Amino acid sequence: MSLRRRTVEVLVAAGLSVTALVPPAAAAGQGHGHAVPLRVATYNIHAGAGMDNVFDLDRQTAELRSLDADVIGLQEVDVHWGDRSQWRDLAGELAERLGMRVSFAPIYRLDPVTPGAPKREFGVAVLSRYPILSAENHDITRLSTQDPNPVPAPAPGFGEVVLRVKGLPVHVYATHLDYRGDPSVRIAQVADTRRIMAADRESERRPVRQVLLGDFNAAPAAPELAPLWQELDDVEPGGPTYPAQDPVQRIDYVAVSKDTVRVRDAAVAETLASDHRPVVADLLLRR
Fold first, then answer.
1. Geometric angle at alpha carbon 189, from 147 and 208, rounded to 5°
2. Per-residue pLDDT at 33
3. What is the Cα–Cα distance from 202 to 113, expressed in whole angstroms?
4. Which of 85, 109, 124, 230 gives the lowest tally of CB atoms within 10 Å of its CB?
5. For the residues 61-90, what does the mean pLDDT come to?
6. Can you give the pTM of this predicted structure?
7. Could you read off the pLDDT of 221-230 as tens digits, one per residue?
């Protein structure tokens, strides 16, 4: 079943409008002037494994295709990482299968197990139907899962791309915040995120369109996320995202700059292709 059909059924059951998530092309002509439509999604792909912990990239490809998104932020992406994902380049394979461009931002980049093999990498990625004008892998505060005695320190894995969407530049960021119960690292990561995004706004004289995609590992009302909502709007898709089977909390987000991007509709897609459910949103980019 397609995302649109699933979304309409959920909205009808809730007594809400069934005009949500119309095709982006149609959204452009419904009284919004010269605003440019853009469909985006975020999905923690659990290194290619579903809720059943079985690696199945065909299953995830089908789910991603059903979202019909122009831009997708991915988390927990293996690139030649290990046996769990068959040593494959998940970022490159998904991009090729979906006919999209890709930018991968590793959090970890380790030496191969076998001499001469590719580096073992794990991180986040952005898939795009639109041209990628530039890409950067920013450092933010992290508490490494690869160090037996970690301390919070700057580390890569906050991916940024600048896209050209029908003539408009759009900054898209992909992130995965700390999962631990103690919010102290997430507090630092939110501060880092705001600093990076503010620098982009300050470096351009014209208004900057910004879209943040990620697994924040915190609920919308969590105090550590509150500073984000000063500059960004949460698309509020109306449902929990984790765990994928019988989800109880929303920790996956699409957030957009308040003055330059309008949220038209958003939804959570029902699927067990990962241990998270994806969030998809129809946006309108203001000129």
1. 135
2. 56
3. 43
4. 230
5. 98
6. 0.89
7. 999 999 999 9
Predicted pLDDT at 4: 43
Residue 230 burial class via C-beta count within 10 angstroms: exposed 0-12, middle 13-18, buried 19 and up? exposed
Q: Are strands 279-285 and 36-44 parallel, antiparallel or unpaired?
A: antiparallel
Q: Is 34 left (phi over 0), alpha (psi -120 to 50) or beta?
A: alpha
Point out the least confidently predicted range of 17-26, 27-36, 51-60, 170-179: 17-26
Is the bond into 247 cis (omega within 30 degrees of 0)?
no
Q: How far is CA 135 from the centre of its chain?
A: 15
Token digits for 225? 């996320």
Q: Are 174 and 138 in contact (CB under 8 A)?
A: no
Cα four-point dihedral sign 260, 231, 173, 127: negative
Q: Which two tokens stand for residue 46?
A: 């659990």
Residue 206: its pLDDT value, please? 85
Residue 114 has pLDDT above 70, yes or no: yes
Contact indicator for 168, 287 with CB cutoff of 8 Å: yes
167-181, pLDDT tens digit by residue?
999 999 999 999 999
